[in-house]
Amino acid sequence: MTEPLGARLDTLKTESVTALKQVKEAAQLEQWRITYLGRGGAIPRLLRAIKDLSLTEKRLIGRKGNELRQKLEILYERKKQAFGPVSFSAKPASFTPAQPLVGHLHPLTLAIRRVQQIFSAMGFLIVEGPEIEEARYNFDQLNIPFEHPARAETDTFYLEDHGDAQALVLRTHTSPVQLRTVLENNLTPPFKILSPGRVFRAERTDATHETTFYQFEGLVVEDGASVSDFKRTIETFYEAFFGKRVSARLRPSYFPFVEPGFEVDLSCVFCRQAGCHVCKNTGWIEVMGAGLVHPNVLKNMNIDPRAHQGFAFGQSIDRIVMLNHGIDDIRLFWSGDIRFLKQFS
Amino acid sequence: MRISYNWLKDFLPKLTLSPKETAELLTMHSFETVVTGELVVPPDITVVKIVNIKPHPNADRLHLVTVTDGQREITVVCGATNIAVGQTVPYSPPGTTLQDENNDNFTVKETTIRGQTSPGMINSLRELGLHPKEHGGIWILPTSLPLGTKLADHVPPDTILDADVTPNRAPDCLSHRGVARELAALLALAIKEPKLPALPPPGSAVNEFTVTVEDAAKTPRYLGAVLTGVSVDPSPLWLQARLLAAGSKPLGNLVDITNYVMFELGNPTHAFDMAKLPGRAFGIRQAKTGEKIILIDTTEQKLTERDLVITCHDMPIAIAGVMGGQDSGVSEKTKDIFLEVASFNAFSVQETARRLALTTEASTRFSKKLDTNLVTDAARRAVDLLQELTGATLVGILDSHPKPRSPHPVKFRPSQVSRVAGSDIFTAEQSRQALRNLRFTVDDTKEPWSVTVPTDRLDIAGEHDLVEEVIRVTGLENIASAPPPPGTEPQPLPHRIYWCEVVRETLVELGLTETLNYSFEPQQYAAIASLNNTDHLCLVNPVAPDMKNLRVSLLPGLLKNLATNRATFHRQVGRKESSLFEIGHVYKPGAGDKIPGVDENLHLAAAVVGNLPRLEDIAQTLARALHLDSLNLPNIITDDMVQKLKYRLPVFGFEVNLDELLFRIEQAVPPARSFADIKAAAFKSTPYVPLPKYPPSYRDLSILIDPVITIEQVQEAIERVGGQLVADVDLFDEYEPPDSAQKSLAFHITYQSSGGTLTDTEIAQIHNKIVAALKRELGAHLRG
What we know:
The complex is a heterodimer. Chain A has helices at 5-22, 26-36, 42-49, 55-82, 107-121, 135-138, 175-184, 227-242, 295-300, 317-325, 338-341, and strands at 125-126, 132-134, 168-170, 191-200, 212-221, 248-253, 258-267, 284-293, 310-316. Chain A is of the alpha+beta class.
C-alpha cells in the first residue's frame, strides 16, 4: 500500500463524482454503483482497509469514509430519479426495509439479456415466437423432411390430439421464429434477426442433457452475407460477450437447413489457447452450428435464392453460461434452489 | 464409426500422414475424427497348439490343457468351454501383461489353482486387449500359423480412429473405402481399389431360388447369390485383425466375410443357411401384425405392418436391414448359403430399428439412404472372398433392381464459390481440381460447367452442394473474417422484451429472486394449487408421467420451489432472498391466435415468504416502473396451500398475464444502445460455487462497538478469522442510541464445512475465536 488512505479517500471522492456526472443512462448508472458502492466496490474496500490504521486515524478516516458513502448514495438516488421513464424504477417511498433487499436474476436471464443487448447493438432485430409450434414450421419448412431422425418421438415432444397433418410440437429450436417473422411481416432482404428462447428435446436428463434449454438463433440475409461475413459477425459477438479477443474456426458439418454447414470453434477464452480443462487442452471450444441458408429454406421464406444469400447460426445459451461460470450440472438451472440462484447478479 | 489406420493404408499406400494428422485433416475438411486407441498384441504371446485336454481333478469347471510350441509341452489350467484338441491358440507365459474383466492390466504369474500348477495361460481376445467386450472363450487362431512364433509378428500394430460421419455423407463414407476416397480427394492421392471381379449375369431362378419384391420403393434392390461348398474355419489373421480394429468379434470366415465387406465398402450383407430354409421362394414384404420372429441374438420380436421382412415360403426369416432370424442363420456346419446383398428404404429400417431398440452395424447403415449401385461392389467383393477363403462355388445370381441409378449432371458456376465464401481466394482451377479429386466428372468447356455426380454422392443435389464441396476440400479455415462494416445502426429492443427487463429489474430491487421452471406442470403441486381438474394441453411422449401436462399457470412451479427451499427459508433471519418470481409462458387449449387450438401467454408470478415486501408494495412499485396508474395484485397463495407446503412462515403470491399488462404500457420505442457502450459493460463470469453437501449451522452475534468502526470492517474480520467455515455473514440489526458512545450491531453467521457436518463444539470454538478477534482488533464487546 503506497498511497495513504486519507489521500485515496480524496481521490476517490473526486473520481466518483466526476464519473457520476458522465453517466448518461440507467445501465451505466448501475455499473457506476457497482464500481463505487457495491459490496466489492471502491468505497467498501477502503472502509475495510481502515483496520490497519491507528485508532486516531481510524476515527478520522472512518468518519470521512462513511460521510462520502452517504453522499454518494444520495447523489446516486437523485441521478436515478433523473432518468425518468427510461430508467428502471426508483425505490418506493412507502417501503423502507432494514437493509436494502436485493434479489438475483437467473443466470440464464443474465446471459440472454447480454446476448440481446449485443445483437441489437449490432443491428439485429430481436424476435420472439410461440414455444408450441406447428411441425411444418419446426421441421418441413426448414428442410427437415418427415423421415428425418430428429422428428422421432425419442427426440421431439409431440402434443396430444393432433393428426400427423397438423402435428404440434414443443419447438426443438428457435429457427421457426425466424421463418414466422419473415413470413408474417413480409420481410424482404436485407434483414438481420435474432431469436432467443426456450426450446425442448425429448431426452432423459443428466448432468449435460436437459429436456428444456435456451438458445439463440440468428439469420442474416443481405448483400455480402457470406462465410467470411458470418465469421466476422460471430467473432464480434463473442468478443463483446466474453470481453476478450477471440477468433473463430470453422469446420464442415451438416444441418439440413444450411449448405454449406459448419461447426464453429472459438479460441479458448479461459486459457488464451495455452491449454486448460475447458478446451481439453486443444485451445478451441466448440460453440455453435452455422451455415449459409439452404436455397429451399430461402424459397420457403419467399426469398429468391438466385438473387439473395444469407447465413444462419444457433447456440445453446445454457452451454455458454455453464462455461462462463464453471457450472458442472445443467439441471441446476431448473432446480429452483435459492442457494444456486443467489450466486448470480 | 471405428476406422483402422492400417486398412486406410491398404487403400492409400502413399499416405504419409500419421494417424493423428489423418484425424485432424478429416476433422477440418470432412467430419470430426479423433484417434481413440491402438490395437496391439502383447509382445510375449506365443502361437501354440492344444495337444491334450483333461478334466481338472479338483474342480468341475476347469480343465488341464496341454499345449505345444513345437519344442516343449506346457500344461495350464483353463476354464473356457470352446477349446478342442488340434486348435491353434495364443499362450501367455508368466510375466506377460494382460487385461482383466474390467479392462485393467494384470501380470500373469505361475500360480497353483486347486492343487494344479499353471505356468501361464491360454488367452481370450479380451485378455489380450483386442476386444473389450469379448468374454466368451479362448481366441481360436488359424491352424496355418507356425507354432512357437510370436503372435505379434502376424498381427501388425494398428491405430483406431473414430469418425463421426455426418448423415449427409453416410451413403459414401460409412466404410473404409469411403474414408480412404475422402482422404484421396483431400491429399490428391491415388487409391488402390480392392479386387472386384464381375459376377455372371443374373438369372430369374437359380438352383430353384426366386426373389419376389412386394414394393420396389421399400426394397429398391435385392441381390441374392447362391453359393455351395462352404467350409467354415477361423478367418485368416489379417482379416480377423481388420474386424477387431473395426470393433467386431471374429466368428469364423463365413460371418467374418459378410462383416468385412460391410466395414470395407459400406453395404451390409447377410448369409442364410440353405439347409435350414423352409423352401426356395424368397420374398420381401411388409410384416403382418402379430407375426413373430426369433432373431440371431435369440430375442423374440413381435412385428407390425410397418416392419419390412425377408420371407422364405412366406415365413419371416429376417427383419430387413436390422437382423437375421435364428432359424435360418449360419453355423460352423453350414455348407450352402444364400447370400443377401440389398438396399432397403432407409426410413422403414430406421423406424423398425428404433421401435425394437436394435441398433446394429447393419441397421445404422441402412437407416441412412444407401446407393443401390453399392450393392454390385459389395456382392462382387463378398463372392470373391467367399470363394477364396471358404472354398465356396458360386452357382448363380438373382437381382431385383428395377430402377438402376446413373450419375447425374449438375450446373456449376465457379464464380459462385467466391460469392458464397465472401472471399476471392478460390480460383476456377481449384474448383476443377477439388471436384475431380472427389470423383466428379467436370465438363468445363462452357459456363456454367456441367459436373457429373457419382451415384454414391446422394447428398449432392444442386450447385450449392458443389460449392460446399469446393470450399471444404480447399479449406474452410482459409476464409478470413470480413473487415468490419462501415457502421451499424443499433436496433432498439422490442417493446415486450424491454419492459420484461424493467419488470425483472424492479422485482430484483424489491428483493425477489428469479427462478425458472419447466413448461411441464408438476402434478403434485398442481393439485395443491387446485389446478389438476383444469383443461390442459398434454404431451404424447412425456419424459415422466407427472410431466405430461403443459402448465396453465406458473403457480405450481413456484410452490415446488417453495418446497425445495423450505429448510433454507425457515432458517434465514431477516428473510433475505426468500422471495421468488418467474416470467414464463403458460399454455391453454383455446381458439389459438397463432397456433391452432393453443393459447400461449407470457405470465409473471411471484411467491413472497415473510411479510416483506407486501404485495401492495410490489404492485405500487411495479405500477410506477411501468408508468401505469394502478396495478392490483391479489394474493393467490391460500393458507391451505401454505399449510400443505408445511410452512410456518406467512407466504403471499400473485400471478398476472404479462402480455395483457405490457399491452397497457405506452408504445414508445425503447432507446437503442450503441455497440461500444454495450461492449464496455463487462459481463461477469464469477465462478459458481458447488452447493454444499453438508448442512449449515447458524449463530447470532450482537456486539457494542465504537461508531467509527464500519460494518464492512466487522464483516471482514468475521470472514477472515472464520475462514472457510463461515459461509455467510448478514447484518440484521444496527442501532445507534443518540446519547451513547457506542453503536449496537447484530450479525447472523452461517457456519458450514465442505468436509462434514460441524459439531456444536467445533462451531463454539470458531465462534469464540471470532468474538475474541473482534474485541482485540476493533474493541467490540458482546452485548449482554
